Fold:
Amino acid sequence: MPDAPAPATSAGTSAGTSAGTSRSTSATIAPNILRYLARVAGEYGVDLQPLLTRVGLDPMVMRSATLRVSYRQGSDVIRRAVEQTGDEHLGLRVGATQHLTAWGLLGFAMMAADTLQEAIETGVRYQNLSGAMTVWSAGWEDVGYVLRADLPDPALDPTAAVFLIEEAYSSVVTLTRLSIGDAFAPQAVDFAFPASRDRRPFEELFRCPPRFDAAGNRMVIPARWARAAMPGRDPITYASAIDVLEKQMASRGDQQELLEVLEISIAQSLPVVPSFLEQSRRHACSERTLRRRLAECDTTYEAIVDGVRRERVEQLLRRPELTLRDIARQVGFADVSALRRAVRRWHGATPLAVRTGLLERDAPRSRPHA
Structure:
């Protein structure tokens, strides 16, 4: 996760990305949200598996405990799920179905924390390991103990952006009630997106009047709740869990750095794609070792190249003056036909249709309701 701007008293976030790379193509997110999303969508009679498979997440892959997905994969699935279910509050529903056990060892550590505040700050500190798709920060402010959620990318699709913020705060309230009691309610919840037509789902879930079109997303937790003791608190178990989480963070940091360095080198070399042999020499290792390191990240060099090319194609499609031939040449495709096949595989549509959609999305307009 990238470093989140937060007050000095807030819990720190984990390491950010290197300058110049796009987080949307890095496979760094545990797919907890997508698993719950598929479950909730199924209750609407919507089978998300064909869509998950199309972005590279087949059933066997989704069962992997070490699986990581990219923001590109995640936001694509979320946007289509909202469209197919027709539920404008799908994020609230997905967040309300979760449990701390879905967060693995991190959830266990949070249950063993001394107070709710310590549990929250543990979650913030190790958010990279939880499958979070927002950037969390927390700390004491004038109004009370504040938990903030920011989007990883300001250019994120608006539908996916609203879903992620709804899911984020819905899961926090749900998990807190499961941990310390159903009586928990935040003092206030602010959302940066516009109000929906029906506010009742927000009022029923949060049990306080929600505020929309706010300067940022935040939840204010009353001091008595922030200082409340966790029922499962155990300092020895907590310390043991933290020790393992620290080791996992160090390992994940090394893997993320490798992916980002590869992405940057590919992006800077386009339209020429560096050979795998060239990349192994840059990393002072054998091709076999580099392939093993990528396998530990649940990805391949070919998948990284594909992600970088997709990102570049979408950037170039936003420039109407460029022809498809221009774009194919700049991204390193052999011809326009190869570009068309790639775009069809990524989006299920033609390059011109994707261009129209991107330009319409980028055009100044009021944001959709949550």
About this structure: The beta strands are 135-141, 144-150, 188-190, 210-211, 218-221. The chain has two domains: 32-238, 243-362. The chain is about 55% helix and 5% strand.
